[in-house]
Amino acid sequence: MTVTSTLFEAYLKCPTKCFLKSSAETEEKYVNWIQVESEMYQNERRQHLMDRLPSSDCVSRSADVEDLRTAKWRFAVDLSAYSQDLASTIHAVERIASEGRGRRAVFIPVRLVLTNKITRDDKLLLAFDALTLSEILGRSVAFGKIIYGNQHVTVKVKTLALAGKVRKLARKIAELLSSPSPPDLVLNRHCGVCEFQSLCRQKATVKDDLSLLPRMTEKQRRTFHERGIFTVTQLSYTFRPRRKPKRLAQKRENYYHALKALAIRARKIHIVGKPELNLDGTPVYLDVEGLPDRDFYYLIGVRFKTAREIVQHGFWADSMDEERKIWGDFLRVLSEIEKPVLIHYGSYETTFLKQMCQRYGEPEKNSVAAALASPLNLLSVIFACVYFPNYSNGLKDCAKALGFEWSTPNASGALAVVWRLQWEKDRDPSAKESLTKYNAEDCEALQRLTEFVSNLSTSTAESTDGDQPLVVRVESLPRNALFKFRKVQFQVPELETINQAAYWNYQRHRILVKSSRRIRNLAERAKNPRQPKLNPNRIIRCPAPLCCFRCGGKTLYKHRECSKAIVDLKFGISGIKRWITKYLFDLYRCPGCRAVFRNHDYTWSNKKFGEDLRAFVVYENIGLGIPQQRVAIFLKEVLGLDLSRAAVNKLKESAAAFYEGTYKNLTEKLPSGRLVHADETRVNLKSGVGYVWAFTNLEDVVYVYAASREGDLVHSLLKDFKGVLVSDFYAAYDSMNCPQQKCLIHLIRDLNEDLMKEPFNEEMKGLVSEFAMLLGAIISTVDRFGLKTRFLRAHKRSVDRFFKRLAQREYQTATALKCKTRLEKNRRGLFTFLDFNGVPWNNNNAEHAIKAFALLRRDFNGLANEKGIREYLVLLSISESCKFKGVSFLEFLRSGETDVDAFAARKQRRSRKISTRVAEEGGLQAQSESELQTCLDRTLNHRPA
């Protein structure tokens, strides 16, 4: 497929245009007129270049390759250059003869451009001509020239630096033209001046393509496609109203493509927030027409309202020399208006005002200078606040949504340029009249739009009256959220003040104490509570020592009477009570060595609180998840023990130190098993963050703190582990040298979340459905036979068939492709449980352990330090291990035992003895544990009440 310069130029604008241009013809008047003007400019420039040289040194329309290699001419125009894959009609080629023997002539391609500004596309087209010429000559063409604009400026371009880019584009064009199907239709900025704009827009409208929204970038459009959203209608259903935090109240709203799509689908104007339009003065509506490539402004339209009428001015310039005059006329009219406020639409007028002030000077500091310094761009007010039910935010589309119509249906800025160029060519009065009328209508449309936005900023109604379209405020749209306790939003500020006066604390401490003496006395009593008197339940008198512990003297004198109280709890059959033990003892003095001492033969704990109280506090805090502050309240209100939160925390520290050896034994025992579940979670500290890892083997649970989430902890703890590790998809586990089972619950949750985000992604839906059918059959076998390999191994063939089909498929959406890659990457770890007995297919045991820590974390998250977290983890490891073994954590704490396995075994032996005694009393014989349990149940069911 040969790539021509015409197709190359079209591809630079749009791939679809390139494809259509290779097989279609256009009848668009504007583009044909521009082509005619370009050809006239090129012919004029060619003739001018040829007139400078003798006719013998110029040739025209040469196509012979040999003529190029042996040419004697100095200048060639309309040179048709053809190579194997490229073809171009070069506007002109300049040949510079060699200056020495053995040197070859230099060929310089020349491109003629109508506009007064050159773009990168013009340079690439010149580089395309140079590349085509270089393939014919067999040597590179280093540079070329561009002659452009009314002043015929010449620019030298290094084409050799652009050759690589041109070759890459040429390959893409060849692939595009050889394809039987057209490229994906995407509307872009070039559509406004393209001969295929009607055809492409009609196709895009039928498809409801996302490119109809001009503000959406290619990256954003690709992101929506990856989520399975391909149409504007589909996009409209993804919008969710968002509540703006108070701290971001002054921040400007983001632009939501989904809300724009919703406005188009619902055919209603949607308002976000409250557009602010403060017009402190007389509005002056400004619209300017110009020729961008010349930086020339030829028409200034001004519209404003007086007390009696609406005034419209149109200042026209025949040439650039009159630009200063119309600028002066504009300033004169502006000075006659009281406190003018310039209002325009878009950035074109902003640039106009800046350039005019730079070219012709700024006016004196008055109301005119103030108006020029701070014009109001209405588009900046509308953007992200007012969403009209049309695809773009252009003045034409927004005004048409309000019912305004132009006298020329297809009027646009591009057509205005055509009218101006036609007028310059033949001075047709109808072209000038069309331009001035178009400019006046733009000002009138701007006025209509400004008044509409001004009404929005002062009105709270949901719709406007008359012929105006329905207006919907986004705040009024229903939020798809569950009902929950939240602060009530009042529309009237006085109602909010009344509501705040009804809060319980406010009434109790600010109002009722002033209204009732009784409540005032209760409040005073609550500030200074009466401390209960703790009477001892038991008094122990310590005997006197027999001799001095230092010198052995027998003569002793009483020095002082002393006492010590131990606060503890006493557990009964059906309750607990406070138990105070008071020790009475005397201090003695030895006259020989003057030592003062008590009887050391009768010892007691030096601690203020007993072991049962410590066990009860740890059980409530760790086992039941009651915060330490509430534990202290319970002890005070129920048992009359006035312990502070700090005292409760001290008891927790003491218990953690006591069971440090137990925790170490659990940690060392864990890697010796055949199965380990692992998971981790984050915890906030007073300074920074940390991570807590949970490891369990179905009977023992160990929590370990680490400062980071790196896998070093896992490697050090499980370095000798040879069993199966069940975990989630965190990469730190992948380097473990042992068989691994990935949690399939995590996987299906992620797959379901991807489907929720992209409900229209049919590829993703099909892939997830097939995987669900495969896993569902395996789970049915697990439910029927358990985790036994001899039954599960039959599903390995289905797994292999699934991955074989998966490898043969090609997915287009990024989400489906990502899912496929993830499944293939983790294939070895997804179905490990099919090869091992007793290995679960999920990580719920570790998640259950993590949940226990998460419940405990709610009370100290962000308040504890690393030492406190480690103490919590020691006690929580023992608590969860007791739960997994089926024994009481409270009984273990009260037993004084430090080995959880020994305590569980003793409880089990005791249970067996009781069961055997009950069975013997019933006169039954049992040969096995299962028979014993059956006999026990039968005996208990038939024993008399």
Write a structural description:
- The chain contains 36 helices and 24 strands.
- With about 950 residues, it is an alpha/beta fold.
- Helix 15 packs across helix 17 (about 430-460), helix 21 packs across helix 23 (about 645-660) and helix 21 packs antiparallel against helix 34.
- The longest helix has 30 residues, at about 430-460.
- The chain is elongated, with a radius of gyration of 44 Å.
Query: What top-tier CATH class of the largest domain fits best?
Result: Alpha Beta
- Largest beta-sheet characterization: 7 strands, mixed
Strand-residue fraction? 15-25%
Structural class: alpha/beta
Helix content: 40-55%
Mean pLDDT: 84
* Alpha-carbon distance between the two ends: 100 Å
CATH topology of the largest domain: Nucleotidyltransferase, domain 5
Give me the Rg, rounded.
44 Å
Name the CATH architecture of the largest domain.
2-Layer Sandwich
Number of helices: 36
Give keywords.
945 residues; alpha/beta; Lambda Exonuclease, Chain A; Nucleotidyltransferase, domain 5; five-stranded mixed sheet; 46% helix; disordered C terminus
State the gist of this model:
It contains 36 helices and 24 strands.
Furnish the topology, listing elements before pairings.
Blueprint: E1 3-4, H1 5-13, H2 15-21, H3 29-51, E2 58-60, H4 65-69, E3 75-82, E4 86-96, E5 106-113, H5 120-137, E6 144-148, E7 153-157, H6 163-178, H7 197-207, H8 218-226, H9 232-236, H10 257-266, E8 269-271, E9 282-291, E10 296-305, E11 310-316, H11 323-335, E12 340-344, H12 348-360, H13 367-373, E13 376-377, H14 378-382, E14 386-387, H15 395-401, H16 413-426, H17 429-458, E15 471-473, H18 493-500, H19 504-515, H20 517-527, E16 538-541, E17 557-571, E18 576-589, E19 596-597, H21 611-623, H22 628-639, H23 645-658, H24 660-669, E20 675-684, E21 689-696, E22 701-706, H25 712-717, E23 724-727, E24 740-742, H26 744-757, H27 762-785, H28 789-792, H29 796-808, H30 814-825, H31 827-830, H32 844-860, H33 866-885, H34 889-895, H35 900-921, H36 929-942
Parallel strand pairs: 1-4, 2-3, 5-6, 8-15, 9-12, 12-13, 16-18, 20-23, 23-24
Antiparallel strand pairs: 3-4, 4-5, 6-7, 8-14, 9-10, 10-11, 17-18, 18-19, 20-21, 21-22
Helix pairs in contact: 1-2, 1-5, 5-6, 15-17, 16-17, 19-20, 21-23, 21-33, 21-34, 23-33, 24-33, 26-27, 27-29, 35-36
